[in-house]
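explain this.
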Amino acid sequence: MLNKRGTVGLISAAAAVVGVLSAAAPAGAAAGSTQASTAQGKHCVVVVGKAPSDGGVSPELYRNCADTAAKARALLASPQARAATGGRAVQSTLLMTWYSDDQLRGNSTNVFGSSGTCDSSGYRLSLDSYWSANISSAAGWGQCKAATFHNRALTYAASFTLAARNLGPILNDNVGLIDVYQR
């Protein structure tokens, strides 16, 4: 597994975990909801739980998308979101926003944490197939002031102070895992 500083341990095991998590449909997705944001101008919300202490990925509790960021955020109050998160979706804390273009523009996904804002251990986020091939910039909220972005192959990682307005040539449209935390 990878630690927060990007040290590579068992790459094949980590890649298998990321591949399985990215391919699986989120348990909390509402019927008829889309996966992540698409090229058709979608904006999404995702609610995650705290990452397990063994270095695993934060579990995705809920995901849904809409045609505007405001409509997507309103979905956190839906019956599906309440059911998927045990009623915690609407109280979840905004951790990060991912953008498909540099300079914090384009399609977006707001990632919320069901266990509050970031601390030093933070959250470990696995990107789905859309975002792993389209993320170009990201903003952090609350105490989530830093993030380590790992490429899809899990062979390269770089840390940024958030907001990261441009992920650079290696990570642009090539992110498989994000550790977001309080610096």
Summary: The chain has one domain: 11-181. The mean pLDDT is 81. The chain is about 20% helix and 30% strand.
